[in-house]
Amino acid sequence: NEALNFFIIKMALWQIGNSSFAPHFEIISKPNDWAKAVKASASNTQLSRTKLMQLDFWNKFKEYANRRRTKLHLRKTYPQQWYDISYGSSEAHICLTLYSQKNLIGCEIYIPDSKETYERFHSKKRLIEKELGMKLEWKELQEKKASRIRMFKNANLNNTNEWEKYFEWMITNAEKFKNTFSK
To answer: Please, are residues 96 and 167 in contact by the beta-carbon 8 Å criterion?
Structure first.
């Protein structure tokens, strides 16, 4: 639930000499969004037109997805080109992307640091593509730690009247990716 944030705090009592005990709190773990929100609120920089469009797109995407009652685990939105969605694996996640300069939107499995996970998926490439009913672009990115398995759709992101079509495409494919890759 996005309205809830949990912290893990280690509490200790400290005493210096004969002084009274005083509580000492050490944050062991905090929500990822919390640190980003604090950093963002401290920043006085204005967002570019592209960043404002990205934030607006992801906010409206999230609203649309919630109205549609998707089973996807939606996160907080940020003014960036991508929107990550967990599908139950710590080794990979679904990443929705906006490429405004190329007039594309994308849906991908992003594997940040596991060539073994990529190879496991790649060994089932035909089965995965058959279940999804489409060919995917397989990018091992040997010179980098990350790998990608992705697809794209042409999209004019400046035409806000088309956004709901793009939201539907993204949700449909992200749900297909979740169902297929979680197996």
So the answer is: no
